[in-house]
């Protein structure tokens, strides 16, 4: 057979159309015996083929349509497009140069801006250092009594016996409080050291991260994980979840009262189930409309991270949960076998015995728990009783039996407020929980549970025998406690003097009476290890006699540094106020003081007397004074202002003057005092409803804006109708007047309420 030559000069004629020369190769049908075709064949049969001339004249860049992929025109068009593109070196070079020019410009601008901010902060840093140093030296001089020593040596030199006696007394006091003073001075020195040098460690870390990111720009396929060094993530908006990576170990999700939907829970679930290093998870979805699908998403998160999570906090308070939802949640909780710290808040969420039993079943699967916080309480501010929790004896029994098996439990918080558990519930709690010998911290909230004196006796008898509980928070508010119950409480303190921190809430138990209160305060006076005491006797009508009993106890507690007295609406007169003030004067160890004397009809005279007495308490460094609803006018504020001015040792000051009548004149007194006191760093000033107009607003706002010492501020000026542009401008200026570490301002504009929190 002759060799076929397909050159254009030598081509044969078509076998079907003898007068036509072959010009194409057929591509789409192998069974056709004549692969070579002429123009008429192509026209008549409409077949897929390639012109021979195209093959004959092809070069490296020639693209044959329909060959070798016959049914994909996209490949052909793309390849054809590429072959027609002109050289792009110059265009791409310009693009890269423009990119780096733009990047460099933006970075330089940002760096210059940050440099100016930091240089400004350096000046503030020096101011803070000077203030810290001066305060440290001031405290050293007070503690060392240097001026007093100097005075004794200079004025008493001629009378050596008197001189020796006075010097001996100073030495005795120093020896008595040496360890406490040492610790306090060490803290002050540490604070000064923190202000001493500008630390750029975190900035250098950011610099290294930026350098590392820039080094990744050596390719056009950059894939940078910007989260690679994030170990803790706070999520307040759904977009924050995009920063969640596999390296994140702690996640805090705060979607409280956000009106969230299923997409939010799906996103949360999808992101967190991918993370196998998650060890701490805090989720707050309180005050949301929760659906069962949302709860299933939360369960998925727990199940998929069951081996890694050690710390878990879940807040679904005010969420109206069904038993099925609680069942699903419990299943998720039960999977967390390595959990050590657990906090579950289900306040006002319709939890019944059935729900409590489901949670108890989950708890029984967790044997490594060290810290547990279960909140099944209710809120007095929420009048909707339909969604209140209703846990009774059966639910309490199962919860307590599960907790009783925790061998490593050291810290327990159990809130059963307003669940009507009664004496039977108290017996179960006392038997199963209060005897746990590893417990060192106990917070038990049994507010309004109708436990009465019998229930108090059961609780205190159990606690008397547990010598390991050092921190005790016992809320027995509104439980119809009488004298016998008070005596049981006093026996607890007489028989267990190991407690170092006590928060005792006996609010709204007026039947305790003066005899009951006397019994409790006498016992408290023997708790020599106490360093922190909070006593709530609001609405108990204790009067001056009750204040005297409290004062006697305060004088005896020589180791106490934190004292909080809640004495709202107790018919306290001038004599009772002086009892309290003088006892605080005598107890020089108290440094942090909270006094709630609201609605005791103090008036101007009693307020002045009390404030004047407090001026001698030079050892106080943090003062929270609540004088709301006491019919105080401008005259009554005068001595409070003097208290502010003369309290040079106080760095944190809170003054609640809600619903008094101090007016603009009272504001002037307070403003002038704040101008003179340069040591207050944290200020909370609540002047709501005080017959103040825009002039008073102007005075206090200018004072606070000009203050160089205050760096944290809470200011409440509500119920003052602010209309002028000048007043609004001053309030806006206050918010941006300096670099506040925190500022919260509340006031009423003419047509709207305003609240700003930074």
UniProtKB/TrEMBL annotation:
- Keywords tagged on the record: GTPase activation, Leucine-rich repeat, Repeat
For this UniProt entry, the molecular function terms from Gene Ontology, in alphabetical order, are:
GTPase activator activity; small GTPase binding
A biological process term (GO) from this entry: nucleocytoplasmic transport
Q: Does the keyword Repeat apply?
A: yes
* Membrane-spanning intervals of the chain: none
- Cellular component GO terms, alphabetical: cytosol; nucleus; perinuclear region of cytoplasm
Protein name (database record): Kinase domain protein
């Amino acid at each position: 057979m002759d060799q076929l030559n397909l050159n254009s000069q030598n081509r044969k004629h078509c076998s079907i159309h003898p007068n036509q020369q072959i010009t194409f190769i057929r591509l789409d049908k192998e069974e056709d015996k004549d692969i070579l075709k002429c123009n008429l064949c192509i026209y008549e049969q409409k077949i897929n083929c390639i012109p021979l001339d195209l093959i004959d004249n092809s070069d490296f860049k020639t693209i044959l349509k329909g060959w070798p992929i016959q049914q994909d025109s996209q490949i052909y068009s793309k390849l054809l497009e590429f072959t027609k593109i002109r050289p792009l070196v110059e265009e791409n070079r310009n693009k890269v140069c423009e990119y780096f020019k733009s990047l460099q410009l933006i970075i330089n601008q940002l760096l210059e801006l940050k440099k100016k901010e930091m240089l400004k902060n350096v000046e503030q840093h020096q101011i803070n250092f000077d203030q810290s140093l001066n305060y440290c030296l001031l405290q050293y001089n007070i503690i060392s009594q240097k001026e007093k020593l100097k005075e004794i040596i200079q004025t008493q030199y001629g009378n050596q016996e008197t001189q020796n006696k006075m010097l001996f007394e100073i030495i005795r006091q120093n020896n008595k409080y040496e360890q406490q003073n040492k610790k306090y001075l060490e803290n002050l020195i540490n604070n000064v050291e923190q202000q001493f040098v500008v630390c750029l460690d975190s900035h250098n870390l950011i610099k290294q991260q930026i350098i590392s990111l820039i080094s990744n720009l050596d390719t056009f396929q950059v894939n940078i994980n910007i989260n690679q060094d994030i170990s803790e993530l706070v999520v307040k908006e759904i977009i924050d979840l995009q920063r969640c990576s596999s390296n994140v170990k702690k996640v805090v999700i705060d979607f409280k009262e956000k009106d969230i939907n299923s997409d939010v829970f799906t996103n949360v679930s999808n992101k967190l189930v991918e993370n196998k290093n998650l060890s701490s998870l805090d989720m707050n979805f309180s005050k949301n409309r929760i659906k069962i699908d949302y709860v299933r998403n939360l369960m998925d998160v727990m199940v998929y991270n069951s081996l890694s999570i050690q710390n878990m906090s879940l807040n679904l308070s005010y969420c109206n949960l069904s038993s099925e939802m609680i069942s699903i949640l419990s299943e998720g909780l039960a999977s967390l076998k390595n959990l050590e710290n657990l906090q579950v808040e289900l306040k006002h969420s319709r939890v019944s015995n059935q729900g409590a039993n489901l949670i108890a079943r989950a708890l029984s699967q967790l044997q490594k728990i060290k810290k547990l916080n279960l909140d099944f309480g209710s809120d007095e501010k929420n009048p909707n009783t339909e969604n209140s929790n209703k846990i009774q004896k059966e639910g309490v029994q199962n919860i307590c039996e599960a907790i009783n098996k925790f061998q490593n439990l050291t810290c327990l918080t159990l809130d059963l407020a307003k669940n009507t558990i009664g004496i039977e519930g108290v017996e179960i709690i006392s038997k199963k929980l209060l005897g746990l010998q590893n417990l060192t911290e106990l917070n038990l909230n049994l507010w309004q549970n109708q436990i009465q004196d019998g229930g108090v006796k059961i609780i205190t008898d159990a606690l008397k025998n547990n010598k390991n509980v050092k921190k005790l928070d016992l809320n027995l508010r509104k439980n119809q406690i009488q004298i016998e119950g008070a005596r049981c409480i006093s026996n607890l303190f007489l028989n267990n003097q190991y407690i170092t921190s006590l928060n005792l809430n006996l609010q709204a138990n007026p039947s305790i009476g003066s005899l009951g209160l006397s019994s409790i305060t006498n016992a408290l006076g023997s708790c020599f290890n106490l360093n922190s005491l909070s006593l709530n006797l609001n609405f108990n009508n204790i009067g001056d006699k009750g204040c005297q009993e409290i004062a006697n106890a305060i004088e005896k507690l020589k180791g106490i540094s934190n004292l909080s007295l809640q004495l709202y609406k107790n018919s306290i007169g001038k004599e009772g106020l002086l009892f309290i003030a003088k006892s605080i004067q005598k107890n020089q160890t108290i440094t942090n003081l909270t006094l709630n004397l609201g609605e005791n009809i103090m008036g101007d005279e009693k307020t002045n007397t009390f404030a004047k007495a407090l001026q001698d308490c030079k050892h106080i460094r943090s003062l929270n004074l609540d004088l709301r609803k006491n019919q105080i006018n401008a005259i009554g504020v005068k001595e409070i202002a003097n208290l502010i001015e003369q309290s040079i040792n106080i760095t944190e000051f809170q003054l609640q003057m809600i619903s008094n009548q101090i007016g603009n004149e009272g504001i002037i007194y307070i403003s002038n005092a704040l101008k003179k006191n340069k040591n207050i760093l944290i200020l909370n000033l609540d002047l709501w409803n005080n017959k103040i107009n825009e002039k008073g607003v102007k005075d206090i706002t200018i004072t606070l804006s000009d203050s160089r010492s205050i760096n944290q501020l809470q200011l409440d000026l509500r119920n003052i109708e602010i209309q002028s542009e000048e007043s609004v401008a001053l309030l806006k200026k206050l918010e941006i007047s300096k670099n506040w570490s925190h500022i919260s301002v509340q006031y009423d504009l003419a047509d709207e309420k305003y609240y700003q929190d930074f």
